[in-house]
Amino acid sequence: MITAWLMAGLLFTPLAWAVLCLLLDFSRGRLVSCLGITVQVLVSLGLWVAVAREGGFLYGLGGWEAPLGIELRVDGLAVTFILLTAIVAGACGLHASVYLAPDNAWYRYFWPLFWFLWAGLNGVWLGGDLFNLYVGLELLSLSAVGLVALGGGINALRASLRYLLAALLGSMAYLLGVALMYGQFGTLSIAGIASLLPETQALVGPGMAMALMLSGLALKTALFPLHGWLPPAHGIAKSPVSALLSALVVKASFYIAARLWLEFGHELGSTAVAQLIGGLGGAAVIWGSWLACRQSQLKQVVAYSSVAQIGYLFLLFPLTFAVSDTASLQAQQGMTLQVVSHALAKAAMFLAAGNLILATGSHQVAGLAGVSHFLPFSLFSFGLAGVSLMGMPPSGGFAAKWMLLQASLASGQWWWIVVLVAGSLLSAAYVFRIYQASFVAKTGVDDFYHPPGSLEVIPLLLALMSLGLALVAEPLLSVMALSLETGGAP
């Protein structure tokens, strides 16, 4: 009974909050959403504790088991991402409640879109079959497009339309792959398809389906060179929206791609495909970091940093294909920590950047002159988040990259170490560039706007979580490893 209430709270309550907020203006929607955020955090924490104690399980909505009903996969990894979503989305929602001006009539739609996005994320983390993952992904993408366009001018509309076209193209490729899989196996269950693959003689159809789904998901995740839509969308959106997009939205499509690869890759993949995807990820790390160093606008620096950090995630593909179990496990653990660490750090960085823009009244990096003297708090949060992106100890980024380095050595793929080291050095370059601009002396009196304390505390707390993630990595990874069948590590 308790489990049923927790699952209802995760999937249906956000939809109820969304519908309710549609009937309210921004200020009343803010009050309802603060209550809703509190409920969602408690429900997410409750489910995480339940899985940590008793292990994972399958849950049929309405008591209908698969294949007639919708079956949800509730394991350690899923509940960890659910809790991460509650923390990051809750922080972004609280930040937006103060950051966004209530007198803008368009902002009343922020809360409904925010809750639809949260519901889509929970649906992706818990989805157990290919089509329900698609439904969650579409709800997520359409909500994100609306949030990008919200309250902006022509540039925001242009960026949101580009995002929409990329999302639709990615969805079409993914859905076509789903149709091919269903035609081949007669089921959409990921576990069911994985069990049938070893018995299948002709793998051309499933292989084509896998290629289509991964291509569509790579576009939605903005993997190089399919990243052109991301910097305009993340850069032009309001800072709380940018934080949601970078920290959570692009992770959802990667999460699906990673699950498909880990379930189907050993049958449908090849070394060439794995190395190609890893190579695109490595190129994203170098190219995205280089472009981040060259941007003149603060949020564009952070946006191109997202392109680079996404690249690290796709090293999962070569580091888990045709390697030892030890190397594969290290890669999976490292990648999971990278996702969590990046979500916390990038949310903190975008929120801190929004505070700095609000304080200076300028989007330019050069406009930060004097900030270190008059507004050190948000700059400090930005720097702490940068420590994790650089992979310096004791941050979560350091623990993640250390595990990826070990996996590279254990699998004999030393060239990925070059990517890890070069990416960290380039990350340091663009973070220190922001600090260099902020330490330029500013003559005259303090004419900066000083944001409310609540706006500055939120990114600081997220940055501290990312910084201290390595200190709690072991218990966190032990929960992530809990499987469905026994509650033990797979």
UniProtKB/TrEMBL annotation:
It comes from the Bacteria. The keyword Cell membrane applies. One of its GO terms (cellular component) is plasma membrane. GO terms for molecular function: NADH dehydrogenase (ubiquinone) activity. The chain crosses the membrane at residues 6-24, 31-51, 77-102, 109-127, 133-151, 163-183, 203-229, 241-262, 268-290, 302-323, 343-362, 374-393, 413-432, 453-473. The keyword Plastid does not apply. It is a multi-pass membrane protein. Residues 128-426 form the NADH:quinone oxidoreductase/Mrp antiporter transmembrane domain. InterPro entries: CPA3_Na-H_Antiporter_D, NADH_UbQ_OxRdtase, ND/Mrp_TM. Keywords: Cell membrane, Membrane, Transmembrane, Transmembrane helix. Pfam families: Proton_antipo_M (PF00361). It is found in: Cell membrane; Membrane. GO terms for biological process: ATP synthesis coupled electron transport. Belongs to the CPA3 antiporters (TC 2.A.63) subunit D family. This is Multisubunit sodium/proton antiporter MrpD subunit. The lineage of its organism: Bacteria, Pseudomonadati, Pseudomonadota, Gammaproteobacteria, Halospina.
